[in-house]
Design a protein that fits this description.
single chain, 183 residues, alpha+beta, 434 Repressor (Amino-terminal Domain), Transcriptional Co-activator pc4, Chain A, three-stranded antiparallel sheet
Amino acid sequence: MGSMKQKNEGPYQDLGARIKLLREQWQQSVGEVSGTLEIDEATLLAIENGQTMPADELLDMLISHFLLTGEQADELRELVDQYNSQASEALMGGIEDMLMKQVVMYLPIDSKIVYTDSMNATVNDHGVVLQFMQSTGPDAQQLPVSKVGMSREHAERMIKVLRSTLDQHDRSSDQKILPSSDK
């Protein structure tokens, strides 16, 4: 006889359970989170059920979405690293593991500048998430290029710094275009 409650049997149970717990703590539905992250609900459910491990980019988006502290993010990444290590050893030995580590080390030091022409902001009791987008193609479809999460206090400091920087630029530009007094 089977039990009434379905059991999480996926190979990534611990990771999925942690992500599901985060979603529940934020009191968000699968639809809300998947809509915000622009992924299929089935993908998020497969991750939460431990059937699928999120790609690094999706893991970073989940970390940002739930405004995890550095320590909390490191715990999730360490769990993913443990799964990756186990899979690499079981399937292909050390070569794939070495390549994955090189890729993971490369991404955080990527210092390219992404340009944006629009932004959405989401605010809740835990902080602010800014999603920057860029129009692409003939139909000007908006594609996300970056997502940044921060505390409310950090967001307020950022507003002050942006205002001050813009005002300083405007003042210096005004000084450059003053008419000369040569008459």
